[in-house]
Structure formats: C-alpha cells, structure tokens
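G.,

No rush on this.
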Amino acid sequence: MNALYLLLAAAEETPADPPADAADPGRLILEYVLYAAVIVIGLVLLALLHRKGRLPKHMELKKQLDGFAQELALFSQLYREGKTARLKEFKRAANVLYRADKLIYTITAVAEKERDGDIANIATTLEGVRADMLPYKAGKADRDDAGLDAAAEKTAQAQLLLDKILARDAEIKARRTKKAS
C-alpha cells in the first residue's frame, strides 16, 4: 500500500505546464517532415523489393530462354573450334550452367505459383540440359560434342514447349475478350 501511495504522490507533483521547447512549432514541423521522409523512403524500398521479387511473365521467360539458347550456341561453337584456352572454356561452361540453374529456379517458381505442369516440364527439360553440360565444366578431356548436341536439342524442346504455352495463353486471352464483349 505504501508503494501505491508513493506513486500517486509522485504523479501529483508533476508540473502542469509542459516544457517550453515541446510547444515550439518549428520543432514539431521538423519532426513531422522527418517522419514523412522516413515513410517515403520506406515505401520506395518496398516498391523496389516488390519489383525485384516479382516472377517473370511468360513472354519474359521466352526472352530469357532465347538468351540462354544463344549463349549455349555460342559456347558450343567456341568449344568445337577449340581455339580458346581451357580456363576460358571452364568459365564459359560455368556461366552457361549458372544461367541454366537460374532459369530452372525461375521457371520452377513460376510453375509452382501457377500450378502449371507444362511449365514444370520446361524446367525438367532444362535440368537435362544442365546434366548434359556438367562434364564441360568439370573439364572433359576428350573433345566429344555429343553432350553439346543433346543440350542444344533439349533447349530447342524447351523453347517449343514455351511456344505452345504462349499460344495457349493467347487462345485463353482471346476467349476472355470474346466473353467480355
């Protein structure tokens, strides 16, 4: 009971007037401007994170897959010529594999989000491309081009699958616009 009495007595002894600097309008305006700036910066950061974390659309996947196919064709051409140094071949193979891994991850994420088995088939096909390319990163001793040919063929299959998906998307969009009209 003594503690409660001391608390009440301390509360009664607080001054009734606020400090002079708390009522200063310049300080209040400055605080609100700073709060607004922090909020705006936070919203801009959230917008950037949202854009970065967004999954690509099917046309963007098509562009990425076409870029990968071009990079694979360039690697295949340079490997068959055999004029580049081994270290550069390893680096190029590592680049192609990294891009394949990134593309597989992205396509798998899109397939899971859309729950689309056709898109998942593209990722599975690209995993085969990755498996065919692994010996070239490990420094394949003989100049066997069978893995490159198989990888190019599987990449072409993946492109055909994505073309079918894009055609399906166009058909669905046409049906929707026809229904809406």
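When you get to it, here's the other one too:
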Amino acid sequence: MLWVTQSPPYVLSDRGSEERSYMSAKRKPQDSFETRKAKGQEAENIFMELIALMGGTAHPIGPVPGSRRSTPRFTCPAANDERGFTYAVSPDIVFSLPDQPKGMASFAQVKMKQLQTDSSKGWLYVFLDEKELHRMNTAARFSEVFFVIQIPELAEIDGFHEWMVVNVDDLQEERTSLLKRHIAGKPTFVLPLDLFQPLSDLKKRPLNEPANTNAPPTSGRA
C-alpha cells in the first residue's frame, strides 16, 4: 500500500521500511520510565513558556479533586452511562493567545517525539499510539485540541522547526488517511511531518466567531 502526502518528497510507503526504521530505533539504548517522564514534563514546561513569549497564557491541568487517580481527567456527557456523564483523560495544557476573545482557550497534548526517517526516500514522520489519538479525539469533540511535538533535530532541517503542531480535527479519518501499523505490539499511526505547522503559526490561524457576543453579526442575514 502506498500513501503519498501532499508535499513531495515526504512520502510514506512500504511497511517493511517503516518496520526497519522502528527496529533500528529499538536497538538504541532506551531511557527509563522516570527519564522519559522527566523529559515529557520538561517539554510541557517549555511549551508553556513559549506560549507566554507569544503573548498568551498557559495552565497545567491537574487530577480530579479527591480522586485516587493521578491522571488529569475532565467530565463530558455520556448517553450510555447511567449517570449521564463520564470522565475522560485530559490533554496536558490549556492555553490562550492574545488574539482569542477573553474566556476562550484551547488545549494541547505535548510530546517530545523521536524523529523517524528514511534518508534514501526523504521520509520524515513520527509514531502516534492509537490510544493517545483516541484520547485526543474525545477531548476534541468538545474543545479545540492541538497535538504539539518537540523534536530538537528538526531545527537543523530546512522547512521544519523544533516545535510543530497539528489540530487534532485535521487527523480525523474523513480529512486524513493515516497509515496504521503495529509497533512493539501496539496499534500505532504514522504521522508525516507535513501534516504539522510551526508552533508560531498558531497566532496566524483564523478564529471562530464567538457565539455569545453583543456585537452585531458579521456574516449571514441580519
């Protein structure tokens, strides 16, 4: 199966090459859980600082008060739950930028990622665990959610930046056909880097018109 992305030469193709790339990475010394956790927390802290430098604010999301679970969660409607609601895993950070109306905010799932490459074909991509995409999709049903990645080596590659971002809505099946593989026994999606934009482009995106405002409507019939 071949999949050609929108911007050559970033082409994701045969399964064998992807698996060879993964196996090559697997042979490298693996960080301990605590080391990976520390790197992830550092990435979240740096993201918050970058948002502040862009003129915005960023807030970490904590666990449910009184819960024994340390994983941050949010409540949302659930028709199949007798309580009428359920708890779902929260993204990492809630943030706002200066061009957003007061009271409006977005969410970010922040990850330090390992760059996957095939230099012979110019492939650049990252792996995304299916469960993590499902968690982001759940949050994206109710809020604007961005998947933010930090890859330090991208700063040395023309056309890319160390910090890249994609709107989770753009990863929906009806918008993007993602390759799915089993990596280390886990269902995993392959995300080409041309799906992402530099983090700084968040300030350039069009904003949805606020639903509750006293200002006259700017579109549609009066």
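Residues 1-27 have pLDDT under 50 and may be disordered. The CA atoms of residues 130 and 188 lie 5 Å apart.

Enjoy the weekend,
O.
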